[in-house]
Every structure is written in C-alpha cells, then in structure tokens.
Design goal:
Blueprint lengths: L16 H17 L6 H8 L4 H5 L5 H16 L2 H4 L11 H11 L8
Length: about 110
C-alpha cells in the first residue's frame, strides 16, 4: 500500500477592522480601569462596534494590509506556492479571509452561489 502524505498549511487572516475596533475597546476600558481617559481615537473606533453588520464581515485594516504585503512579498520571493506544491487554497467566504488569501498567495476560491 502506497502512503500519500499531504501537508496542510494554516494561515490566519490578517488584522481586520473588527480586530482593530476590539483592541481599541479593550484599551479604552484598560485606561478607564486605571482612572485615565481613553484616547479620542480609541473611543471613536470603539463606537464603530455598534455597527454589527460591519463586525460580521469586515475588511482587513491598514495594519492588516501591511501584514499581507510583508508576508505575501516573502512568500512570492520564496516561490512558496510552487515550491511547496500547493494544490488547494481553501478559506472562509469572509472578506478578510479572501483579502488575505489573495494578497499572500495570489488566489482565492470562487464565491459560493
């Protein structure tokens, strides 16, 4: 019997706007807990959490775009997809996952009908 071994690479999506808003929220409460006022930027980002639809399917943040570019550049330089024989890229249908796969690996799966 011939064994056919497959290697699975897992990549988490880059920082999303949702992640950014949540971090602002946590920083705001951390500062309040220390009897300090949160920054204006953190309060504004925290208020964005009220837009529930944006939390469900958010884009990558500016930091996330830089993360994608940095890792994607390294993967392209190393010719990762070809060198590792990547045959399938699967990801969630959420925008942040699609943006990460496209930017890092240069491909995305088709959208479900």
């Amino acid at each position: 019997m011939v064994m056919n071994t497959k290697i699975v690479y897992l990549i988490r999506h880059a920082e999303s706007d949702e992640n950014r808003r949540q971090q602002s929220f946590y920083r705001s409460f951390g500062r309040i807990g220390k009897l300090a006022l949160p920054t204006k930027e953190d309060v504004a980002a925290s208020v964005e959490l009220l837009d529930v639809k944006a939390q469900i399917d958010s884009d990558v943040s500016d930091v996330g775009r830089r993360q994608i570019e940095q890792v994607g550049s390294k993967l392209r330089k190393d010719n990762f997809v070809a060198e590792k024989g990547i045959q399938l890229v699967a990801h969630s249908p959420l925008k942040r996952a699609r943006q990460t796969a496209e930017g890092m690996l240069g491909c995305v799966t088709s959208r479900p009908s």
